[in-house]
Design goal:
Elements: H1 4-16, E1 21-23, H2 47-50, E2 60-68, E3 84-93, H3 98-110, E4 122-127, H4 137-145, E5 153-156, H5 158-161, E6 162-164, E7 168-179, E8 197-212, E9 215-229, H6 230-237, H7 250-260, H8 268-285, H9 297-315, H10 323-334, H11 340-343, H12 345-373, E10 378-379, H13 381-389, H14 395-405, E11 408-409, H15 411-421, H16 424-430, H17 442-462, E12 468-473, E13 478-483, H18 490-505, E14 510-516, H19 517-522, E15 536-542, E16 546-549, E17 564-573, E18 576-583
Parallel strand pairs: 1-2, 4-5, 10-11
Antiparallel strand pairs: 2-3, 3-9, 4-7, 6-7, 7-8, 8-9, 12-13, 13-18, 14-15, 15-16, 17-18
Helix pairs in contact: 3-4, 7-8, 8-9, 8-10, 9-12, 9-16, 10-12, 13-15, 17-18
The protein binds serine.
Serine (SER) binds next to strand 8 and strand 9.
Length: 584
């Protein structure tokens, strides 16, 4: 049996031997990315480098990235889809392309240096082309030359074999499938509809930048982005046809059996959802940028995951407070790989207990209310909103119950109600569970540089205990969280503005250098993102005023920033303040 850790090591070492630098996983909460609540793919933290910026670790990168993906949430409950997963990824940033990428994947999967999978159980798909982009003949031919029978090389349309996010780097891909069924009954040809052909790896050939729907431009460089979910490949290597049988889930399944007194084999869907969602909730709460359950944004996704798990737990007879027990086990399972979850253990446990208690208080009442409301077999938008705001039912949960019972639900009206009750800008993120890309517009870049100036100014005014806790920058404004225990006075805010504007008036160039992390620390560079970049880091310096470890991008000279203005200062969470600011 190959362990998960042996698999991670094998993958990293294999690609290291092919000239790749190993970098650590980035946070689950993206930096400076207004369009995405979570890191949904390994490529997301690497977007600036896929766009052409130089990565300090070089142009061949390999890593294991923790990811949260909620776009497939309805499929969680089957054997292969998960909300939290780890993605093994190797990248070429303008270096090798299709041929080398495919050959390396094949070697890793089938050779003695890699996983020794049975080549006969592997099939692939390539992009068949459309009006805008041609058939990927190059990828096709590489597979043919590797000896894959043509029946096992499917040519599929864009829906299957093109990868990108809402905007940003994208291109055709080739997907690799493994036969999870009986090894003596491997079909002669690949069939996309047969679930026993499990997609294990996706190699994306990123040549384009998607600017908007239907609008593409060539990228500065040709990249490769590959992603292989650890849960699936571990299952394949060890001969399982259910990811929940692997060590990444089995201990959780066993614990749920203990807590419920029920058997997994008879309640697969509930068991899987509980294990999946609570593992995801633990990883989100335990992330270095831990967030709390809330009614908007990433906090809302977290709330949905916890509450959905609790509801499924009730279906199999778990009635005591239990989510923290699952979390304790998740922490034991993953703490060596992601030490942040161990560090934040108390926070994770406390938040889970609080959320579960809150939900338990209202769930029974809410379910009764729902019964009453649905006398007409239809739940109005207002009713769904009452369930949401008074009884804490996430819309998706109301929908799910409605579906089970055959009631209709007026979702549009719910959304109108919801919008009425929320600050508009915050609402935008609540419905947004799909990934998107960091927007690298000029205005966002300016605000990003302004954020560096502001942090330095805050430290001058409030003292050296001020550290960045998070940031979110759009083309319209910057939002910045930092450690500080009290409300700032109007005088302090004015002073911060004045200091930033005074710096801007000095027309200072922004200098970037790549240096060793230790050296950067020695030079006193501020940094919350250092873990992303491994040993070599990029440091941005603005005169003798600001020095930060950061992936960029930034303006060349701060003279272009204009006038800096703080619009709002408020509490973000205990000991953390939030500033919203603009450039005029
Ligand atoms: N970006 C691709 C995916 O997420 C490959 O890493 O599937």
């Amino acid at each position: 049996m190959l362990t998960a850790n042996e698999l991670r090591q094998k993958y990293l070492e294999f690609f290291k031997s092919k000239g790749h630098s190993i970098i650590p996983s980035a946070s689950l909460i993206p930096e400076n990315d207004p369009s995405s609540l979570f890191t949904t793919a390994g490529m997301q933290p690497l977007v600036p480098f896929l766009m052409g910026e130089k990565h300090p670790a070089g142009n061949r990168i390999v890593d294991v990235q923790k990811c949260i993906r909620t776009s497939d949430i309805d499929e969680v409950g089957d054997a292969t889809h998960h909300t939290f997963f780890e993605m093994l990824g190797n990248w070429s940033l303008g270096d090798y392309f299709k041929e080398d990428s495919i050959k390396m994947s094949w070697e890793f999967l089938t050779s003695a240096k890699g996983l020794r999978l049975d080549a006969n159980r592997i099939a692939v798909s390539v992009f068949k082309g459309n009006d805008n982009s041609p058939f990927d003949e190059e990828a096709y031919n590489v597979w043919v030359n590797l000896g894959i029978p043509k029946e096992k090389i499917a040519k599929l349309p864009k829906e299957n074999n093109w990868w990108g996010m809402e905007t940003g780097p994208c291109g055709p891909d080739t997907e690799i499938f493994y036969w999870a069924g009986n090894p003596s009954q491997v079909p002669e040809s690949f069939n996309d509809d047969n679930e026993l052909w499990v997609e294990i790896w996706n190699n994306v050939f990123m040549q384009y930048n998607k600017i908007a729907a239907g609008e593409y431009e060539p990228l500065k460089q040709r990249n490769v982005d590959t992603g292989m979910g650890i849960e699936r490949i571990l299952s394949a290597v060890n001969g399982f046809d259910d990811n929940y049988e692997t060590e990444l889930f089995k201990p959780l399944i066993n614990l749920i059996e203990e807590l419920s007194g029920q058997e997994y084999s008879k309640n697969q869907k509930s068991f899987r959802i509980i294990a999946d969602h609570l593992k995801a909730a633990t990883m989100i709460l335990g992330d270095e940028k831990g967030i709390m359950p809330a009614n908007v944004g990433a906090g809302y996704v977290l709330r949905r995951l916890i509450r959905r798990a609790v509801r499924y737990a009730k279906l199999i007879g778990i009635n005591q407070i239990f989510t923290f027990k699952i979390a304790e086990l998740v922490i034991v399972m993953y703490q060596d790989i992601y030490p942040e979850i161990k560090k934040n253990k108390e926070f994770v446990i406390n938040q889970l207990i609080l959320e579960e208690e809150k939900f338990n208080k209202t769930i029974e009442q809410g379910l009764k209310e729902l019964e009453k409301m649905s006398a007409k077999k239809k739940i109005s938008g207002q009713d769904a909103f009452v369930l949401f705001s008074t009884y804490g039912f996430p819309l998706e949960m109301t929908k799910e119950i409605a579906k089970e019972k055959g009631y209709e639900i007026d979702e549009e009206e719910f959304k109108i109600e919801f919008t009425k009750h929320q600050d508009l800008s915050r609402t935008a993120s609540a419905g947004m569970f799909k990934g998107g890309l960091a927007d690298n517009s000029e205005q966002t870049t300016k605000l990003h540089t302004a954020a560096h100036l502001m942090l330095a100014a805050l430290r001058q005014v409030l003292g050296p205990d001020v550290y960045q806790k998070g940031s979110n920058i759009t083309a319209d404004r910057l939002r910045f969280d930092f450690s500080y225990g009290q409300k700032m006075t109007p005088e302090q805010l004015k002073k911060v503005e004045d200091i930033v504007n005074e710096q801007i008036s000095k027309k200072i160039p922004v200098i970037s250098q790549e240096i060793d992390f230790e050296e950067a620390k020695k030079q006193g560079a501020m940094g919350v993102f250092e873990h992303k970049y491994g040993d070599k880091v990029k440091v941005y310096t603005i005169g003798d005023f600001s020095k930060e470890i950061c992936g960029g991008p930034h303006v060349d000279n701060i003279e272009v920033l204009g006038h800096f203005k703080i619009q709002k200062e408020e509490s973000s969470s205990a000991g953390v303040r939030r500033i919203k600011a603009i450039l005029e």
